[in-house]
Amino acid sequence: MIREARHSDIPTIMNLIQASVAIMQEERNEQWGKDYPLAKHYENDIEAGQLYVYEDQTGVQGVACISHQGHHEYDEVAWSFDSPYLCIKRLAVNPLERKKGIGLTFYQKAEEMALAKGIHTIRTDTYSKNQGAVKLFEKAGYHFVEERINDGREAPFYYYEKRF
User: Fold this and answer.
1) pLDDT for 16-62, tens place per residue?
2) What is the phi/psi pair of residue 69, to 5°?
3) Does residue 30 sit in helix, strand or coil?
4) CA neighbor of 64 nearest in space, from 15, 112, 117, 102
5) Which of 17, 22, 12, 24 lies closest to 55, judged by CA?
6) Which of 4, 28, 18 is nearest to 128 (CA)?
7) For strand 121-127 and strand 86-93, is the pairing parallel, antiparallel, or unpaired?
8) 145-156, pLDDT tens digit by residue?
9) What is the DSSP string of 33-60?
């Protein structure tokens, strides 16, 4: 089940992040590293009431920020729809629990939250080397909008949105 995150979840969240970063490094995907995301990002998300965790009987297995605000470059992306939106960012799933639908569950939760607020668009992004995220977005029905080189990275970031 998905619930709002609490400050007491931060150590578990950061363990998930460290495990995810280790896999990203093995895959030569430098989307995340030692400088991002940090505990302070998740703490700020909790304070803003926009951090959620997926918890099963054994504990927290995933985390995601569901926000009304995208990253700073979102203002420069040529989105298909100029309307209010929710944004999913900093999503991570316990590597031992991947491919069980947890990531997709966060996207479904975001859609439910959006509809409850009269919002009909969700935006998201990922580093192009993060093929797991690309597959998740496509499976969830998100449409590719554009790619951009950010922060001097060697590969582009991909931007997606879904209207419902």
Assistant:
1) 999 999 999 999 888 998 899 999 999 999 999 999 999 999 999 99
2) -135, 130
3) coil
4) 102
5) 12
6) 28
7) parallel
8) 999 998 778 899
9) -SSSS-HHHHHHHHHTT-EEEEEETTEE
Residues in the chain: 164
For domain 2-120, give the CATH number.
Answer: 3.40.630.30
Residue type, 88: I
* Measured distance CA(79)–CA(156) in Å, rounded: 17
Q: Find the mean pLDDT for residues 81-96.
A: 96
Mean pLDDT of 7-13: 98
* Domain layout of the chain by residue ranges: 2-120
Half-sphere exposure of residue 153, counting CA atoms within 13 Å on the CB side? 19
pTM beyond cutoff 0.90 = yes
